[in-house]
Design a protein that fits this description.
The chain is an alpha/beta fold. It has helices spanning 21-35, 48-56, 72-83, 100-104, 106-110, 147-151, 154-167, 208-220; strands spanning 10-15, 40-42, 61-65, 91-95, 117-118, 139-144, 177-182, 193-197, 201-204. Helix 7 (154-167) runs parallel beside helix 8.
């Protein structure tokens, strides 16, 4: 495969779960096919190797952040963190959630520097911002992102969970649901698993259809879904 034209001397990828799972392996294979080498870092692991790679990488450098919850505030936060450790002007950032369809457009993304933001002249982080407060909510759902649930597709389910709740007007709002990715919750053989509080209910969501049912029926409509329960409640 032809290596894409890129203005960067090196490209670093960072995001949750990139050290494990089928999606992470597909990303690594695609990057190696495009560029001959892959510099991939898991944001849920020790970040020291990422910061070291940031310091040691030749310039100009692109950081591709695959955090599924990234927005403009997250991008500016990351730019600020990078600017504190580098000269900033020769390091650029682009944020995008990883998915199979996105992988097909990876080469085009890398060839479009107009989509990349320099880590210089970063706007000051406001004194009050979304992550400085506990988000309003009535319930909290923890979706397991432990190693076995991740290998069973939990990362993809996380994106569907967030999108479905947001579309229903129930994501982190008054009377809504605060969602969190957790480490291993058990029982792994029934995963991916999710637990709901304060009700103390545990569910298995083995695929997108079961997750959608959990959101639509239990979290939005407030109806019981005993077929998805794995606890004794």
């Amino acid at each position: 495969m032809t290596t894409p034209v890129s203005p960067y001397a090196r490209i670093l990828f960072i995001g949750p779960g990139l050290s494990r799972g089928a999606s992470a392996e597909r990303l690594r294979q695609r990057v190696e096919a495009l560029m001959g080498e892959a510099h991939v870092h898991d944001s849920e692991q020790d970040l020291q190797p990422f910061w070291l790679a940031l310091d040691e990488s030749p310039r100009p450098l692109l950081v591709v952040d695959l955090e599924p919850r990234a927005d403009a505030a997250h991008r500016d936060w990351l730019r600020e963190q990078i600017a504190e450790r580098t000269d900033g002007a020769s390091v650029f950032v682009v944020c995008t959630a990883m998915e199979d369809a996105w992988l097909d457009g990876l080469a085009a993304l890398l060839e479009c520097p107009e989509l990349h933001t320099a880590c210089s002249d970063v706007p000051a982080v406001p004194a009050q911002h979304a992550w400085s407060h506990i988000p309003p909510h009535a319930q909290r759902l923890l979706l397991c992102n432990g190693p076995r649930c991740t290998r069973k597709g939990a990362l993809g389910l996380w994106k569907t969970l967030r999108q479905r709740l947001k579309a229903a007007g129930k994501l982190e709002c008054e009377g809504g649901v605060h969602i969190t990715r957790s480490q291993c919750q058990f029982p792994c053989d029934l995963g991916p698993t999710a637990s709901l509080y304060p009700a103390g209910e545990w569910f298995r969501v083995r695929d997108e259809a079961e997750l959608i049912r959990l959101v639509d029926e239990r979290l939005v409509a407030g109806r019981a879904v005993p077929e998805l329960r794995i606890d004794k409640g």
